[in-house]
Amino acid sequence: MTQPPKGARRSYGAKTAPYAHPSPTTTLKRARSAPYFYPSPTTTLERARSAPYFYPSPTTTLERARSAPYFFLLPAAVLFLLFFALPIGYAVWLSLHKVQIKGLGLGKGAKSEVWAGLENYASALTDPEFLASALRVLGYGALVVPVMLGLALFFALLLDSPRVRARSFARLAIFLPYAVPGVIAAVLWGFLYLPTVSPFHHLLDKAGLPQPDLMDGGPLYLSMANIAIWGGTGFNMIVIYTALRALPTEVYEAAKLDGCSELRIALRIKIPMVAPSLVLTFFFSIIATLQVFNEPMTLKPLTNGIPSTWSPLMKVYNDAFTGGNIHAASATAVLLALATFALSFGLLRISNRRTTQGASR
């Protein structure tokens, strides 16, 4: 065996040494051939795509996102069907039927529900009590709607003026009567109308002035209209006032630079620009007028001047729960709903037509 030269350093190569560490290349080759070697990124992605719990593709995610709003709308749709659509459908079904009595109406099977067609509707349209109640409601609405909307517009314009102080308190004071339930408001005003307990009648008596009877005859319309105006002006005022606050202030500043007064700004700028809000409040007022029930029903025990069929809804209530004729009451209710829809739809079409003509000019 050849000995290295004297003074030379012995070299222990990786190939001859039994415990020499492998080179980086050898280590990488062994690691790749090992059974537990981590796969490359390409292999990892292929295995992940073949896994059963791989994240969905963008197309699947988009489909789920599109169907998500319907799941949110499902509770509202179910409530709408249960408490709105089904009762309307049941009322229409009842209006097309009637109770037929055989013999004396005693015993099992003496009363049966049969098809009536449009008989109940014809009876309702020819009923003098229903027609009289409709006329009374029209007169009542002729008093309530213009006065209530006029006061609401006046208060909204007044609160929108920069010269008004204590705006928050005034806004709350005007809106507060709307928060009082209609039945409670009718009871409060009813006792103020009664001559025996009203403080106003007592003051008029002390002053030697005549004491009008507000619970009978023509003043009765004014009494009930006053309750509706007192309770509904605040809500309509808030709607109009919100629309006024949303208008751009640059329009007011330009009008002031041109020399316009506050009155001219209100008449020429503010009122035309809040016309959609006025139309909306007008529709709400018309619907509430046709459905008036709380005021006359609450005041009825306090006076003999209010019949049990003073309004169409009172006629429906009297036929269903006093007379026991729920089929005729359903027909009257359907007619009232159709009249409300037709009136609202017609007024809305007229309003949209005028708005379109004004925009085209």
Nutshell version of this structure?
With 361 residues, this protein is mainly α.
Query: Strand content of the residues, in percent?
Result: under 5%
Which runs of at least 5 residues are low in confidence (pLDDT < 50)? 11-17
Give the terminus-to-terminus CA distance.
117 Å
Oligomer: single chain
Helix content: 55-70%
Largest sheet: spatial strand order: 1-2
Averaged pLDDT: 82
Please identify the structural class as seen in this structure. Answer: mainly alpha
Order of helices and strands: HHHEEHHHHHHHHHHHH
- Provide the gyration radius in Å: 40 Å
Total number of strands? 2
Number of helices: 15
Shape: flat
Sheet with the most strands, sense and barrel status: 2 strands, antiparallel
Description:
With 361 residues, this protein is an all-alpha fold. It has 15 helices and two strands. The protein has helices at residues 24-33, 41-50, 58-95, 119-125, 128-160, 167-175, 182-193, 199-207, 218-245, 249-257, 262-273, 275-290, 294-299, 312-322, 326-360, and strands spanning 97-101, 111-115. The chain has a two-stranded antiparallel sheet. The protein is flat, with a radius of gyration of 40 Å. Mean pLDDT is 82; it is low at 11-17.
Task: Give the secondary structure arrangement, pairings included.
Layout: H1 24-33, H2 41-50, H3 58-95, E1 97-101, E2 111-115, H4 119-125, H5 128-160, H6 167-175, H7 182-193, H8 199-207, H9 218-245, H10 249-257, H11 262-273, H12 275-290, H13 294-299, H14 312-322, H15 326-360
Antiparallel strand pairs: 1-2
Helix pairs in contact: 3-15, 4-15, 5-9, 5-12, 7-9, 9-12, 12-15, 14-15
